[in-house]
Design brief:
Elements (H helix, E strand, L loop, with lengths): L11 E5 L5 H4 L2 H7 L4 E4 L4 E2 L2 E2 L3 H16 L4 E7 L2 E2 L21 E2 L3 E3 L6 H12 L6 E5 L11 H11 L8 H26 L4 E4 L13 H4 L6 E6 L13 H13 L4 E6 L12 H13 L3 E6 L9 H15 L8 E2 L3 E4 L2 H6 L3 E2 L8 E2 L8 H14 L4 E4 L6 H4 L4 E4 L7 H12 L3 E5 L17 H5 L1 E9 L6 E4 L12 E3 L4 E7 L4 E7 L13 E10 L2 E6 L3 H8 L2 H14 L4 E4 L5 E8 L4 E8 L14 E9 L4 E6 L4 E2 L2 E4 L2 E8 L2 E8 L4
Parallel strand pairs: 1-2, 1-13, 2-5, 5-9, 9-10, 11-12, 12-13, 15-18, 15-19, 19-20, 20-27
Antiparallel strand pairs: 3-4, 6-8, 7-8, 14-29, 16-17, 21-24, 22-23, 22-25, 25-26, 26-27, 28-31, 29-30, 30-36, 31-35, 32-33, 32-36, 34-35
Helix pairs in contact: 4-6, 8-9, 9-10, 12-16
Length: about 675
């Protein structure tokens, strides 16, 4: 792939997702430039409503004029290309362009369009439009999609192609085969678009609307498109579709961490919708808008901000906040260039486990809400989300990594690896995890981690047993909330009490026997028949610790993360905090702060800077949040390797008094909606 000037600086992408009044169209480039956007993902000139696809005869002259106007401000144009739907009336002439369900019916998109089949004849039409658009002076192409419906397209073309690839009919396909087929279909589609760009000889970047942190419901995963795109992007900021109070306040941050963990240096973009989904014309609150921007940049991603209405929507309070924050990013671009995270903890996202043992899918523009029957002792997705929540609320510095990062080299930069009920692990991955612990790392694993192979088949003799110190897996214990309790028997810190009994797992847990070298940290009581009965006299190991080489393994028999996610038990959160602090270096300590204030430490080595982001998610107990509660006097202590000569804030500009005693730096900071603390240090000679 050729480099493009569009990637030389941080991207600040605006997207006006709805056709505009003719008198407003040519005003847009000037408005966007005024507020610091350096790129536009352009739909409104080549679209109707939210359908956008360049057609030469219809759009050529208007697009040329718009490109010339944008060029006056130095704004780069990424052309929107609808890669997932067609008009219903198109089916009259092209019935073979649509995706079909098992009954042979077409599948509705947004209620008014129809999903297009990415393997069928429509693909030829689409590639022709891409080829024509490359005649224009554009700098990028964005694919909205491509995707497959949840159960996979069952049209004639897809059935034939599946038979060729897998050697049997789609009707007898396993869930894993259907997942693989969707991913292969998307990969081939994006590859062919990349081929059109290459043949044009132009330096045009390409990216797609990929899914993240869910099972492979559409086929458009980061893994599928990775070889062919220049930018990774996902809709981490399209909120809320369902009940806002059920959406994690960390949603955007998780998405950005996930992309960065996959990127290997490629730029990452979080798509942030300006509206309150699913209402296209209902704008977000001003507070939620700040959080969209702040959580994105605090985790190293670039901002895409789109409105699904008229340009006047930018005059709302939410729109004004978006423009103001983007202007801040433009004015301080140097602080968002060439940064990298400073982390010691890796949280594993297992795409294979999510695909084979899904628990739920959130409603989005491409998917409907779905709940799945749980086939394992606990939910991987809820366990993952719970540990992410714990890490954010304890202000831990962590990365989200995928299975491809389970290599000795990739894990060498971490102190702690968390495996949240990662059921599916192949033997090579388990060997790498064992090596990580032997070499001094700490592994924290829960429930049925590593007890299934990469195809979802239970191991007859799981090799993780010798890693965790398990000698016998006796039974799965189904815990009913209110009927299960725990007790610390070997404290992690001096402040923990062995006398106190506190709430236990809310999901299934495993009753196992362990080798003599395992130390029981926490015992679980066998569940009571009812919540007001006496505690059982019998217990089984709930959390164990063992040395392995010069490292450590912490095995948790139940759904620790899921319980914290669903019930927020303080004792569990505190126990987790104590464990992570014990086995990490403690280079950053944050005190006198709400747990809902996100703290992200990044480095800028070329500029000899630490960058400490504070994203305030502290609202008024209901979403969407309308205002945020400031947090004053946050106490920071961090370890630095060089003399610090200045500490200052950027968002509410001021110099900060600090103390440095050897390698220990301390200071206090106030945070309103967001803050970025810059710590300038002297570069080593």
């Amino acid at each position: 792939m050729k480099d493009s000037n569009i990637l030389e600086h941080p991207l600040r992408i605006a997207a006006i997702q709805f056709e505009q009044n003719p008198e407003d169209t040519m005003k847009i480039p000037g408005i966007l430039a005024q507020y610091g956007f350096n790129t536009e993902q352009l739909l409104h000139v080549v679209g109707h409503e939210v359908y956008g696809l360049y057609e030469k005869q219809k759009h050529k002259q208007m697009l040329q004029t718009y490109l010339q106007e944008s060029a006056k401000y130095g704004t780069k144009i990424i052309l929107y290309a609808n890669a997932h739907m067609i008009y219903p009336e198109t089916l009259q002439a092209h019935p073979d362009w649509a995706q079909r369900d098992a009954s042979g019916s077409t599948v509705s998109a947004y209620g008014t369009y129809v999903f297009a089949c990415i393997n069928g004849p429509w693909k030829k039409f689409f590639l022709t439009q891409i080829r024509d658009s490359l005649e224009q002076n554009i700098q990028g192409i964005f694919l909205d999609g491509p995707n497959c419906i949840t159960e996979g397209c069952r049209c004639v073309t897809c059935k034939k192609l599946f038979q060729q690839q897998f050697g049997h009919s789609m009707e007898s396909a396993s869930s894993l085969e259907l997942s693989m087929f969707k991913q292969l279909s998307v990969a081939t589609f994006v590859r062919d678009v990349r081929s059109e760009i290459t043949q044009s000889g132009k330096s045009v970047v390409l990216y797609a609307n990929s899914i993240g942190l869910t099972h492979n419901v559409t086929g458009c995963t980061i893994d599928a498109v990775s070889p062919y795109v220049d930018i990774f992007g996902t809709e981490g900021g399209f909120l809320f579709y369902g009940n806002p109070n059920h959406v994690s306040i960390w949603r955007g941050s998780e998405s950005a961490k996930y992309l960065e963990g996959k990127s290997d240096g490629k730029p990452c973009v979080i798509f942030n919708a300006g509206n309150h989904q699913p209402w296209a014309r209902e704008m977000h609150t001003a507070a939620e808008t700040i959080q969209l921007f702040a959580s994105t940049v605090a985790n190293g991603a670039y901002v895409w901000y789109g409105i699904h209405g008229q340009i006047d929507d930018l005059e709302t309070e939410a729109g004004k906040n978006a423009l103001s924050f983007n202007r801040f990013l433009a004015d301080h671009e140097e602080y968002f260039t060439g940064t990298r995270p400073y982390t010691e903890i890796a949280l594993l996202w297992s795409q294979r486990t999510a695909d084979l043992f899904p628990s739920q899918v959130e409603e989005t523009d491409f998917t409907g809400h779905a709940e799945y029957e749980q086939k394992t002792a606990g939910s991987f997705q809820k366990e993952f989300q719970g540990f992410a929540e714990l890490l954010f609320r304890t202000h831990s510095q962590f990365a989200i990594i995928g299975e491809e990062k389970l290599t000795s080299a990739a894990l060498s930069s971490y102190k702690i690896l968390i495996l949240p009920n990662v059921c599916c692990l192949n033997k090579e991955a388990i060997s790498v995890i064992r090596e990580f612990a032997n070499n001094g790392g700490t592994v924290i694993a829960t429930l049925e981690t590593g007890m299934y192979d990469e195809n979802g088949t239970p191991y007859s003799a799981p090799s993780v047993f010798s890693l965790f110190g398990i000698t016998e897996r006796k039974e799965i214990i189904q815990n009913i909330p209110g009927c299960s309790y725990m007790q610390i028997v070997n404290p992690v810190t001096d402040s923990e009490s062995t006398a106190h009994v506190f709430a236990g797992f809310c999901s299934g847990s495993l009753n196992c026997a362990f080798t003599p070298d395992c130390q029981i940290l926490v015992n679980s009581f066998f569940p009571m028949e009812g919540r007001y009965n006496y505690l059982s006299n019998h217990t089984y190991p709930g959390i164990i610790s063992r040395r392995l080489g010069i490292g450590n393994v912490i095995y948790i028999s139940g759904g620790f993360g899921e319980t914290c996610l669903q019930y927020g038990i303080p004792e569990l959160r505190n126990l987790f905090r104590d464990l992570t602090q014990k086995y990490s270096t403690g280079y950053l300590s944050v005190n006198n702060v709400y747990s809902s204030v996100e703290v992200e430490l990044r480095l800028q080595p070329d500029q000899s800077r630490y960058l400490l982001h504070f994203v305030n998610h502290t609202g008024q107990m209901q979403r969407p949040m309308e205002s945020l509660l400031p947090c004053r006097g946050i106490q920071i202590t961090m370890q630095v390797s060089s003399p610090v000569h200045r500490v200052y804030t950027l968002y509410a500009p001021k110099n900060i008094n600090f103390n440095q005693n050897g390698n220990s730096l301390s200071f206090a900071v106030d945070v309103g909606d967001y803050e970025l603390v810059v710590i300038d240090y002297s570069a080593s000679n």
